[in-house]
# Entry
Amino acid sequence: MADPMVQTIHRDPALFYWILFPISIVMVLTGVLRHYATILLQPTPKKLTLPALREQRALLHGINLRTNYSTISLPSFLSRKNTLVAGYKNGEFLKDPESRGKPAGNPMTDPAAMEGMMGMMKGNMAMMIPQTLIMGWINAFFAGFVIMKLPFPLTIRFKSMLQSGIATRDLDVRWVSSLSWYFLNLFGLQPVFIFILGNDNAASQMAQQMSQMNPGAAGAGGIFQPGQDPDKLFKSEAENLEVVEHEYILEGVEGRILGTAGML
Amino acid sequence: MSLSTPLRQSNSEALSLAQQTTQYLQKHASTGTSIPIPFISYPESTEIWMMYEKLLLACLRTGDDKAAHLCLEKLIDRFGATNERVMGLRGLYQEAVAKDDAALGRILKEYNEVLAEDPVNTPVAKRRIALLQSLSRTTEAINALTELLESSPTDIEAWTELSDLYLSQSLFPQAVFCLEEVLLVAPSAWNIHARLGEILYISATSSSNETADSKTFAEAMRRFCRSVELCDDYLRGYYGLKLTTDRLLSALPNDSTITGQMVSTDNGELPMPSTTTVRKLNERATFKLAEITRDTTGKGLNYAEVVAAKALLDKSTQVRQR
# Structure
């Protein structure tokens, strides 16, 4: 475009006090509320029963042996490996040895898995409901207002981001509509929440999405995902252990010590 | 206030920590009781509660039972009396203020009841084992520990404790086994490597089989080597290295022609080290020990260990002069 004509829109200053401020304040307050609501909704971590704990730790034991075998001598390694592999294959460490070999049940009927899903549902609800409400509120009261002008120029690509709700083609991109201001707040308030609530807050939806990426990682489920058959995990771990080729870290350690001391 | 683990504190550190308790309690008097309001109330963090636990331990250690009780009450207020960790700490406090063995017996009964209800309560299970130890019922303690480790074989705290118990009963192979388990979880723990060497050394000195002895000494020497490889200037490691190499030098054939012969055995055992290597290692250990003990200020070294190392060095110079 050739002409750098500056668009001017005369805005009522009341727009600033009655739209820009309220939206921002409401967004911050909902964030804070959401933080406390999430804390309240959090289920208390379920306690593991002794057999379940044993099952998990037994698998971990095997993994540890597989990764750190080099610290112990060959005879010690072999005796441990044989015991563990035999135990894995016989299903000694299983939580309920009777149900071994049966196909894994539907995760929908597993109460533990259900609980995890309920937790996720609650988290989602705490995020969705306020968002829907505020979105509706803004649409009902403030739709179609141009409320501020950015102090810097932007390219045309930002038009859909900054001017949602206003169907004008020629308006300069620097003008921001109320609905867009809401979206900007929604995504950009994270530093404010960190300032108010501390680092591990649940106010922002970014954090929520992060935690949904790996559900169960922090939960009581531990290393077993719901619906996974521990027997199969044990079997594969037994195979992993069997192919380990042992080497001993103490072999030649004298030479290494003298080498670093420059005495060889 | 440092957040280092209470086990590694020296007595003086524990005392100074315990003396800060009253001050700390006043400063954080309001935390955790009211609803947290941003900006106004003191922000609650994990560190505060860790600090309370630490203060509790330091107070119990220095005999300040009153302040310890205040800390404990704070923790109970915040986490509830049914929290596992709080239950363990409460048991610790009760054990500390118990007057006689009968009172300890009552606490033991309490622990048994708690564990009968909830066998997964690890802190209380561990307290029970410690209590059995302090009642000098070592066999029961060992049994309880093996039971605990049966269900959680990755608990290194329990493995080290069991190793110490076995050592106190002179069951060396068992003690070694336990420490190997610890190494499987924490492969770079130089103190455990050195500890393993120490146990091997003790077992070799207390047995009478000569050929097996020198093999065990060689293994102990390699463990000490590994520990100083992982941690430079590790006093205990070099101390052990010097002891074992001294022993090996007197046991090995004193003739340098057979150096470097590598007889690798079929069952995966490492060959005996050559005399020259052992001698060099001995020189190295002596040198490092002298270097470490020369200037000990500000290194956080254990005083007793330094004195022992100096005594060892003096002894070896005397032998050489003779």
Observations:
- The mean pLDDT of chain B is 82.
- The two ends of chain B are 51 Å apart (CA to CA).
